[in-house]
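[job 4417] fold queue: 2 targets
>>> target A
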Amino acid sequence: APSSFERYVKCALHVHSTQSDGVCTPEEVAAWHRRHGYQCLVISDHDTVTSTSHLSTPGFVLLPGEEIGLKLLVGDFLAKRNEKIERKIPINLHLNIIGLQAHSSFASLVGKDLHTSLAEIIEYVSKQDGVVIVNHPLTSSFEMTSTAKSKQFDDGWSLGEELARIRQPYFMEI
């Protein structure tokens, strides 16, 4: 039977440092996770790839990561009870991009619809052997106006359900 290490890797995939809005330096973040039995860590600071390769040690790997924020639109492709919702709602989507060595600007996608934008990002990152994680999709990553939130719950559609329709491989943080 495989040992627990062969079956599971304890890894933190969404951690910030003082390079964005965290309270610990990258070195302190890595040391804490190492002391607490993690084998893998992604420091995913906002809109920057923090240099961490020097912090990897045998049995403890740091992967390059970055959390990006995009303002996108939802609405034109959403369906409620076989009825198309015509209104577009702006949302702020937060994504962890893991495995890319340098910052990637996706500014050209701002203002586009969620489905198209996320598909383009996943394709771009996948071609570079990276991974995309949709961060906290049902909470703060969708910073909608109170009107949009009310419409979301009143009309019975869920942004999480819309994310589930995307066919490219990605992960979702819950």
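>>> target B
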Amino acid sequence: PAGTFSRPARQITQKGESTMTFYLKEEFLSFDHFDIWDEQDQLVYSADREFFTFGKKLNVEDASGRQIAAIQHVPFSIPCTYVLTIEGQDYDLTRNFAFFSRSYSLDALGWEIEGDFMSLEYAIMKNGATVASIQREFLTLGSRYALEVADPQDALLALCVVLAIDCCDEEHSG
């Protein structure tokens, strides 16, 4: 849960503005099972890898077990592309070529995702404004992220972006 994350998510808005913060934790040796908590340590989502599919696929479920989103790798895509499906709408997340950073784009919404060299911090930007901030915990067994989203309406899509980036980074590091 949130208490296991050693540093808080970076503040992206002024005090008093409503944001949403999520904490994602991949269980060690779980083959891509993530539990996702909110700021009150309530389990709100989970994500699991679907096996026996062509291309890596994660399904996101709400706390009641209802599937609400999917993240699907497009096999043999150059550059690396993931399709994020939410409420029947598909969004293509594409990894961009960059030398000393990690860069992705979600062209349908005009989102640009920029990460540092070590893939520890990312910012999701749109027209110069921060949509979300992503921080990855360093040196843990299994991946851990803190995600702060400026507009709660963007929360589920930003969450899917984090999961897709984790899959893409995993694919390119191994």
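[job 4417] complete. Note on B: The longest helix spans residues 155-173.
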